[in-house]
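name: query_chain
kind: protein
chains: 1
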Amino acid sequence: MKRLIVIPSRSASTRLKEKPLVLLFGKPLIRWVVEGCLRTGEEVLLATDSPRIYEAVKDLPVKVKYTPANLPTGSDRVAYAIKDEHVDYVINYQGDEPFVYKEDVEKLFQALDRYPVATLAVRDKRAYEDPNSVKLVLRKDGTAMYFSRSPIPYMKEGSDLYPLKHVGIYAFRKETLLEFTSMERGHTERVESLEQLRLLEAGYPIRVILTENYYHGVDTREDLELVERELSARAFTNW
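structure:
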């Protein structure tokens, strides 16, 4: 099976201006992501609407596909970028997620042998009450039952599993991604503003890989400061 990691990255951002180009230890955020994905040994494609973003990584062995600026989501940018690519499995690796782990990437790709979609989750009590952190509950078979910005499940008693925080990195079979991005938005997707609920409403199983690795995307200046501390503590500053 032909595999590909696609990193969607757009120039506009609502909470952190020119987010992909914001510096982390003197290096643009998007470069952290691209370099991390390249270290997995997989082929990497950057899907962007901005020549400036490409300039930040053009010396790296990464393909680039320019995408329209008006595409609504990262999934739409990934679908646009791979529609003519000869690829079977694709990972949508968020362009604001500087932490990349080869073992998690491999598990996501392996899950696509059985499931049309796969994603990641971590156990995180701090995320439970935060509406910016997406929580999820699982079926017995390890697929997602529901995702929500609300604190789910209701913790009437303690749990060794919950709460789980969703990590917004997705693996798709190519045909599933193209089907997904051509579908009308679902009702719960509109209510929660979570695009993965479109898949659940349509009946697609989403395999959830639980990981103990650390992930934290950058959306705000506070996120940037937290990620800098974590990168420093984990000796990742020389990546």
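note: The CA atoms of residues 31 and 57 lie 6 Å apart.
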